[in-house]
Specification:
Blueprint (H helix, E strand, L loop, with lengths): L1 E8 L6 E5 H5 L8 E6 L2 E10 L7 E5 H7 L6 E6 L5 H9 L6 H12 L5 H14 L3 H13 L11 E5 L9 H10 L4 E5 L9 H5 L9 H11 L1 E5 L7 H13 L4 H14 L4 E8 L6 H18 L2 E8 L7 E2 L1 H13 L6 H17 L8 H10 L2 H12 L15 E6 L4 E6 L1 H10 L9 E4 L6 E2 L4 E7 L2 H14 L2 E4 L10
Parallel strand pairs: 1-5, 2-4, 7-10, 8-9, 10-11
Antiparallel strand pairs: 1-6, 2-5, 3-4, 3-6, 12-15, 13-17, 14-16, 14-18, 15-17
Helix pairs in contact: 3-4, 3-5, 4-6, 4-10, 5-10, 6-11, 6-12, 7-14, 7-16, 9-16, 11-12, 14-15, 17-18
This protein binds 1,5-di-O-phosphono-alpha-D-ribofuranose and 6-aminopyrimidin-2(1H)-one.
GO cellular component, one term: cytosol
Protein name: AMP phosphorylase
EC number: 2.4.2.57
Length: 501
């Protein structure tokens, strides 16, 4: 065991500690060993690294997050000892071999993820194993329950509703319109979202352009009490804490395996105490055909039944981006425009938002069957959804803003059509890649604005889309990439000529 003096480091790391290089060499430890850091009966597991200059002999560098969790102050003496190897590794291996995991084994994996006992390498192996070998509904149920139980669980009086998309389609900012429509009618809709997983902007990234999203449970309760709704980030520590940890690894791999997709969504809903949930499954993004979409919908409904959550699913059009804006600020701007004057906003966005709202209003008994969408449109058209959205934004700690006031990247480049013709395809994947290369979602002002949609007629040199970024360098990279990928396909009426020779 080592006894070392704490030096608190202002670095954004959660599971790494540093000791002096010579101290490490003269100890029984090796670089990257898993160690227990103990202070006054509190323990945390971290990985050991060394530094020659940053840390003096006898000291241990603790990132602020670790120091806060252990309640250690600069100069306090902490104990360092070897940590046992996580038990989960054998279960991860079992899943890699294609075997079914027992409930207790899944619980152990989730617990060790939440306790920061697994490195990203090990979590990545687990996610890859799920991607390749999947899980059956029993395994998914256990994983979902444990993901929820390891964080706070909220209870409400009466029924609460929610809507959640499996994501994958660029420009999917519908929730900023749907949530206030539902909240306006008096139904409670405490919406949790994740940040981007595979896309250039998750709902939490978009809402964060306008207000705080990392609310504590008590704040969520207050906001919902005042407004009937909220739009918060599920990763805000207390709710289903394994979710955001696994999402960070999924994002790096750019994959969202089905078992984790199901448990990521439903663990947040279970923790949030949702009774009735609408799942949006865009066709053409994470699911490629109707069979796959229907099978995923059945999985959601069955998992919901096992968790006592009533689930309905909507399979929606997702073959091209929703609306025209892709990237956090651009999407916030477009959603605001739809709330201010829906006739000026892209039809695909408005149509999606009011269709989903309509189903929820029917699920909640606010509208008779077949009349929900018209009621939703009316709430949007008369500005009631706009006012409700502003109430929510302000209650969460933001300020009222108009769409004109939302700033987007100061550098931009127009990408022009090389020929006269028609837009025959816009690739979701390619548009996302370009928006991410421009900096989204971390650079909130980065992204892509589509000037055209599939079916539009264009002339040579018309603007197809504009790429925005707050960095010149990233913009240049995104422009180069877009010339290579050609995400918007323009074709003339003559597609190909085939001759005899
Ligand atoms: O598109 P990608 O990044 O893969 O998936 C993540 C997005 O999908 C869900 O959408 P919503 O909260 O229903 O709007 C998540 O919360 C997140 O915003
Ligand atoms: N994997 C996920 C997809 C969409 N939303 C989520 O919260 N999680």
């Amino acid at each position: 065991m080592l006894f070392l003096k704490a030096k608190i480091l202002d670095i954004d790391l959660e599971n790494i500690v540093l000791i002096n290089y010579d101290d490490l060499k003269n100890s029984q430890y090796f670089s990257q060993d898993r160690v227990v850091i103990e202070y006054k009966n509190k323990e945390i597991i971290a990985f050991l690294y060394s530094s020659k200059d940053l840390i003096n002999s006898g000291e241990i560098g603790l990132p602020k997050k670790i120091a806060d969790e252990l309640k250690v102050k600069e100069g306090d003496i902490v104990n360092v000892s070897h940590a046992d190897k996580p038990i989960s590794i054998q279960y991860i291996k079992k899943k890699m071999d294609g075997n079914k995991l027992k409930k207790e084994e899944i619980y152990t994996i989730i617990d060790e993820i939440v306790d920061n006992n697994l490195s990203n390498i090990e979590i990545s192996a687990f996610i890859t194993a799920l991607y390749i070998n999947g899980m059956d509904i029993e395994e998914i149920t256990s994983m979902t329950i444990r993901m929820a139980e390891t964080g706070e669980m909220i209870k409400w009086e009466g029924q609460v509703y929610d809507v959640h998309s499996i994501g994958g389609v660029p420009g999917n900012k519908y929730a900023l319109i749907t949530v206030p429509i539902i909240a306006y009618t008096g139904l409670k809709i405490p919406k949790t979202s994740s940040r981007a997983i595979t896309s250039a902007a998750g709902t939490a990234d978009i809402v964060e352009v306008l207000t705080r999203v990392n609310l504590k449970v008590e704040e969520i309760k207050r906001v919902v009490k005042e407004t009937n709704g909220c739009l918060v980030w599920g990763g805000a520590l207390e709710l289903a804490p394994a979710d955001d940890i696994t999402i960070t690894v999924e994002r790096a791999l750019n994959i969202d395996p089905k078992p984790l997709l199901l448990s990521s969504v439903l663990s947040k809903k279970l923790a949030m105490g949702i009774n009735k949930l609408l799942i949006d499954i865009p066709l053409g993004a994470k699911v490629k055909n109707m069979d796959e979409a229907s099978s995923l919908a059945r999985n959601f409904i069955e998992l919901g039944d096992r968790l006592n959550i009533y689930v309905d699913c909507a399979i929606t059009y997702g073959e091209q981006p929703i609306g025209r804006a892709i990237g956090p600020a651009l999407e916030a701007k477009e959603a605001l425009l739809a709330l201010e004057d829906y006739k000026k906003a892209p039809n695909s966005l408005v149509e999606k938002a009011i269709s989903l709202s309509g189903i929820l209003l029917e699920m909640g008994g606010i509208a008779p069957k077949g009349e929900g969408k018209d009621l939703a449109e009316d709430i949007l058209a008369t500005g009631k959804a706009h006012d409700k959205f502003m109430e929510i934004i302000v209650a969460q700690g933001g300020e009222e803003k108009t769409s004109d006031e939302i700033e987007v990247g100061k550098y931009y480049t127009d990408i022009l059509s090389p020929i006269d013709g028609y837009v025959t395809k816009i690739s979701n994947e390619k548009i996302t890649k370009i928006a991410k290369t421009a900096g989204a979602p971390n650079d909130k002002k980065a992204g892509v604005y589509l000037n055209v949609k599939v079916g539009n007629k264009v002339e040579k040199n018309d603007v197809l889309f504009t790429i925005y970024s707050d960095s010149k360098e990233r913009l240049e990279k995104a422009v180069k990439l877009s010339r290579l990928l050609m995400p918007v396909k323009v074709e003339g009426m003559l597609l190909k000529r085939i001759t005899r020779f």
